[in-house]
Amino acid sequence: MRAGGGRLMQHILVYGDSNSFGTPPMAERGLGARMPAPQRWTSVMAAALGKDWQVIVEGLPGRTTVHDDMVEGAHRNGLTVLPAVLYSHAPLDMVVIMLGTNDLKMRFNVPAIDIALSIGRLAALALASGVTRDVLIVCPASVRETGCLAGMFEGAEARGAGLCVHVMREAARLGVGFVDAGAHVSVDPLDGVHLNAAAHAVLGQVIAEAVRDRMKQPGRADAK
């Protein structure tokens, strides 16, 4: 598809959880709020990329990498849902994956290395599908055990130690792009999990720049 200026439009799929959906920091659980669309990092990214890019957002609160959630439902499993999402939006130029936060819940009790390997499995699946030319993995900002979600994420700070390094290694192994969200933004201390509007604004710009840079590289995963 061509953009208004005649150039080919680039199609980017964001596959994430509540921080891609736009859930704001919560004072109490279960409110079901959502930030206004222009404030979400995905919208900030789309605006920064411009009219020649289409950003498709598939963000689901509670989505895990590869785990059925025995409390919130099996549909939270990012691995089982991903193929349908990919093929429903084909063809794509890039898939941006930002998952792993919900894997840190106490109910799953998995270490950082397993979360990173699970993210890598999603990236590998996306590449193997033939639907997308490339993948960009975004390692989420570190969770803090505070506020109304502290009990649900008990032990998350210890379990998540070293996650960024493990995810970066997975991205390098697969030859895909990588962004460390935690190098640029932090979760809001109100609930220790979600990003506030200011963090969304920063993250959207950071990922837009990473997407542009990645698309310019001749050695991307699709070129191998």
Structural description of this entry:
The protein has 224 residues and is α/β, with parallel strands linked by helices. The protein has one domain (10-217): Rossmann fold (3-Layer(aba) Sandwich), CATH 3.40.50.1110. The protein is built from 7 helices and 5 strands; from the N terminus they run E-H-H-E-H-E-H-E-H-H-E-H. It has helices spanning 18-21, 41-49, 78-88, 112-128, 156-159, 163-174, 197-216, and strands at residues 10-16, 53-59, 94-98, 135-139, 177-180. It has a 5-stranded parallel β-sheet, with helices on both faces. Helix 2 (41-49) crosses helix 7 and helix 3 (78-88) packs parallel to helix 4 (112-128). The two termini are 24 Å apart.
State the main characteristics.
disordered N terminus; about 220 residues; 5-stranded parallel beta sheet; alpha/beta; globular; 7 helices; Rossmann fold
Task: Furnish the topology, listing elements before pairings.
Layout: E1 10-16, H1 18-21, H2 41-49, E2 53-59, H3 78-88, E3 94-98, H4 112-128, E4 135-139, H5 156-159, H6 163-174, E5 177-180, H7 197-216
Parallel strand pairs: 1-2, 1-3, 3-4, 4-5
Helix pairs in contact: 2-7, 3-4, 4-6
